[in-house]
Fold this sequence. Notes:
The structure is a homotetramer.
Chain A: E1 26-33, H1 38-48, E2 52-60, E3 67-75, H2 83-95, E4 101-106, E5 111-117, H3 122-133, E6 138-145, H4 151-154, E7 161-163, H5 171-182, E8 188-191, H6 200-206, E9 210-217, H7 226-232, E10 237-244, E11 254-261, H8 268-291, E12 295-298, E13 301-304
Parallel strand pairs in A: 5-6, 5-8, 6-7, 8-9
Antiparallel strand pairs in A: 1-3, 1-4, 2-3, 9-10, 10-11, 12-13
Helix pairs in contact in A: 3-8
Amino acid sequence: xxxxxxxxxxxxxxxxxxxxxxxxxxxxxxxxxxxxxxxxxxxxxxxxxxxxxxxxxxxxxxxxxxxxxxxxxxxxxxxxxxxxxxxxxxxxxxxxxxxxxxxxxxxxxxxxxxxxxxxxxxxxxxxxxxxxxxxxxxxxxxxxxxxxxxxxxxxxxxxxxxxxxxxxxxxxxxxxxxxxxxxxxxxxxxxxxxxxxxxxxxxxxxxxxxxxxxxxxxxxxxxxxxxxxxxxxxxxxxxxxxxxxxxxxxxxxxxxxxxxxxxxxxxxxxxxxxxxxxxxxxxxxxxxxxxxxxxxxxxxxxxxxxx
Amino acid sequence: xxxxxxxxxxxxxxxxxxxxxxxxxxxxxxxxxxxxxxxxxxxxxxxxxxxxxxxxxxxxxxxxxxxxxxxxxxxxxxxxxxxxxxxxxxxxxxxxxxxxxxxxxxxxxxxxxxxxxxxxxxxxxxxxxxxxxxxxxxxxxxxxxxxxxxxxxxxxxxxxxxxxxxxxxxxxxxxxxxxxxxxxxxxxxxxxxxxxxxxxxxxxxxxxxxxxxxxxxxxxxxxxxxxxxxxxxxxxxxxxxxxxxxxxxxxxxxxxxxxxxxxxxxxxxxxxxxxxxxxxxxxxxxxxxxxxxxxxxxxxxxxxxxx
Amino acid sequence: xxxxxxxxxxxxxxxxxxxxxxxxxxxxxxxxxxxxxxxxxxxxxxxxxxxxxxxxxxxxxxxxxxxxxxxxxxxxxxxxxxxxxxxxxxxxxxxxxxxxxxxxxxxxxxxxxxxxxxxxxxxxxxxxxxxxxxxxxxxxxxxxxxxxxxxxxxxxxxxxxxxxxxxxxxxxxxxxxxxxxxxxxxxxxxxxxxxxxxxxxxxxxxxxxxxxxxxxxxxxxxxxxxxxxxxxxxxxxxxxxxxxxxxxxxxxxxxxxxxxxxxxxxxxxxxxxxxxxxxxxxxxxxxxxxxxxxxxxxxxxxxxxxx
Amino acid sequence: xxxxxxxxxxxxxxxxxxxxxxxxxxxxxxxxxxxxxxxxxxxxxxxxxxxxxxxxxxxxxxxxxxxxxxxxxxxxxxxxxxxxxxxxxxxxxxxxxxxxxxxxxxxxxxxxxxxxxxxxxxxxxxxxxxxxxxxxxxxxxxxxxxxxxxxxxxxxxxxxxxxxxxxxxxxxxxxxxxxxxxxxxxxxxxxxxxxxxxxxxxxxxxxxxxxxxxxxxxxxxxxxxxxxxxxxxxxxxxxxxxxxxxxxxxxxxxxxxxxxxxxxxxxxxxxxxxxxxxxxxxxxxxxxxxxxxxxxxxxxxxxxxxx
Lengths: 307, 307, 307, 307
């Protein structure tokens, strides 16, 4: 630091600093039919393996006949080398007995993420900025757009930009081109204001979670030109919703939402500006929660382990 | 004050204290077709009358062909005695020339308000408490309910409680009974969780603004059992909307809205509890804004002069 | 319900309805030095006893040398009859081994609460209203005030009102009178705008948690007349903080906080009104969290298990 | 637009579109001792000049002996050519009589802005992004930093980057170097996390408003390492305050504030991340309000005309 007079109050927030120790060695994620003894079995197994639980969240959709979800972070010597062996032992000793879907994700293991975008840049720019700062635990493998406008925002960050136009009447061809690029190459896809509806067939063949962001109001204004119509009703709050994409447009499980207060004197253009500010924050939060394995889909809704 | 050790920090907030001087003598409210010269004419008139403007808000829905709205508070010697004369002069010198709808409300002049309620007490109790504290500039002339449950909340406050049941197939008779009680006796009606739909005919014959409160979500959940359904979609924000009632159910101009964050672990019952907390605050704010003449209806929306 | 036309959309929110089954049989609360094996031991014990965990929150202040906190709700046949036996077994088999402070609270077991108040009624009225509705899992055993003003708010709710004046130079006598009333009779005390500073000696001899509410701003305005001074700095947010009381005035562990946006045009009186609205909500949330055993004090701060 | 299937709902928010007509021709900003007749004189003058007022905000710090502030936007033929003449006429006919400080700013006239920054990039990047999108009505004439780290963020946007290091014991020289760059060249300076304290002498010689951003909490944590200390007190809200800089550190008039909710489980690093998100939004709002001439300094506080 050059100057002696540098203000000291934010010392705790210096961009550089001593590396913090890894907060955990691995994460264990579980979903299974609820029944007595799950926590005892899982925690007993981890204890015997020499693991120490540092954080744990659980949720049961119903004590009787419901589904049980668990997210546990633990520290354990010998990781990541012992990860594969641990996975096998867990499957043999615990997972099979309780019909568990489970996953062990080692610290530092990054999900592969693609971003789809059309011409609005606010969500894309914000995700790239956070990613470069290390706020998003992902490897961004590609940005795909049906326009060529935003190439210059993407390539300087060292990310490949694919232009896959969607020509009139040729959406299946475009979706096929995107599948060729993405299938098997990504763990999650983020729609950062991608303005094309994705077909159910595309979603199924892609086979990974897709996260979308869209504006929201109280009440909802479906259809065209929502900001103008919201303004005509004198809406006082403008919001955004991030959700997993399903074949039903804008109907998938909600991950995150937020709102901002607006006033009658603001034009539709100003409302859109407010909307953009909310959209980029809500999408970034949703993506970070997903990458942190904090979001669990339970039917039409999500369980978000935030505490 | 009895004790010497009474904490002094909130001295500025003592319940009793020296009476503040009236912040204004009267309020002038105007709506008219927008055209040049309105503000000059109004402010010139007030200056000649010896009035000093202490606050002023204006809004034009469109500079060309729009409608102009003004809310002005002024101090002026000789009020309230001169109010009638001032009104006549204003009509003759300014109001007629600009085709104004206008109203002069003297300081301390209270609107007559009725509250309609069914069996939920949270909005009613909150409005009565605020009213007793002097937060609502109204005279509450009656509480009307289709149930007899809440009489004990109302009568100790010195307010008359009317039980007007709505029997199956006999809603017109119930609406007539309410009209007999209220028509000409009230300036505004507040639906504090009144669970009957009011007919367009009733609203028209009543002839005064009616304010309603209802829950809101992002996105909307119309129909039965909204909290359960919102929970099934994993909604992260629960809100409430206060609006003027029109013949179109829940479609009138919005006065005020707010939301609260919720989590997957909260039961539908807990979401309702959160909803109640928002509803009472949003309704109270909307009623206070209305009584303070800060809400102007412009077509399907409101202009709220809050700044 | 009398009327056929009763609006059906809030059906899920009817005041009366089929009683829900108890969501849990008992709660287990634990604090102990962190070390491997705690969760395995606790969950193993509960499983052997036939208990099914329905919710569980844990927190470790530090994986190495920190303190571990757990809050678990479980269903188990034979409760509440088996509670004492369960407590003994747990102490013998688990608690002692891990040097645990622990508590088992049966479903429906209510903490005894006293409210201290001076002359502002907003927090008191709100707590009493929530309590009558069943939102607060407590038995209110007394309201104590250094003034006699609020008796009429309290006695109709069936709660005893004690007037303990604090005369100049005689605060020790007043504190002794309050100790005579409260010591051994209450599990928690809530200061609902009680404007006397309680001595460290009083707090120690009382021996139960005391929750206080006070206004907060960004930045803080310590000392007299804070709303006027906040207004003079043009503060844009007004807030409130609920915290546990320690001998250091307003310095105890924070339980809950919230803020509301304000504007330059609002008078100090209006800011106080906004402040009251926040205070009552923040205090009510803090009290509910405390009664629900969701707040754990860890040194100068709290762990709040909300998710 | 390439694809026929482009989702149409956000049509109103397309990046490109028909140019909107200018919303006003010029802005008139006034501050003067309050006395009767000001609004009449100003609006009479504008009417005679053929101007039509499209928006107007006023505030009087006290009806008796206070200061009066006005912000008016009007449309008028012949602008901007007639601006100088209008200014002279206004001074002669109205300004002098009421001892007014006033300013007429024509539509499209942009303030010259410099940004000072150290090594945190979040506020800088956000301001540059908004500026490139046209959200900030300014000409950014320079970015000045005491470090050379952020040059690559700035120069691609076509903005000059000046590295003015602050060497130990040589702050006066650094301030002089900055004065040489900025004095007379800028209308406003924004400290986008500039970590050097500016001397009162520098501020005085610079002679234009300086806007700063810093973190805020309830209660305040002055001094070093605030996030760690806030976490140790279990603070539930993290905030940021944008204010005009005065010689008193962090004590200048507040322009804008906001907060975000946090939890006990978030590390100090995560709290800083939340803090960054609030800081950039609060600073951007404050800068936009300032550039839009909506912020008026009245002693130690601001009047913000937002409605």
